[in-house]
Amino acid sequence: MDTSSIVNILFLVALVLLVGVSGGILYLSAIKWRDRRLQSRDKLK
């Protein structure tokens, strides 16, 4: 394997991991926001 192809593969792996971690953080943030909203709605009832 050529050095440039190894670098390209590592870059793609890093990019996929970055997108995966970012997506997970966004998902958890959205779930937390939804739970807070539902709890505040229940307190008003």
Question: Briefly, what is this?
Answer:
The protein is mainly alpha-helical and 45 residues long. The protein has one helix at 3-44.
Fold topology:
Elements: H1 3-44
Question: Can you put this structure into words, describing what you see?
Answer:
There is one protein chain. With 45 residues, this protein is mainly alpha-helical. The chain is built from 1 helix and no strands. It has one helix at 3-44. The longest helix is centred in the middle third of the chain and has 42 residues, at 3-44. The chain is rod-shaped, with a radius of gyration of 20 Å. The model has no long low-confidence stretch (mean pLDDT 94).
How do the helices and strands follow one another from N- to C-terminus?
Answer: H
Shape: rod-shaped
Distance between the termini: 65 Å
**Low-pLDDT residue spans:** none
The level of helicity is: over 70%
Q: How is the quaternary structure best described?
A: single chain
Number of strands: 0
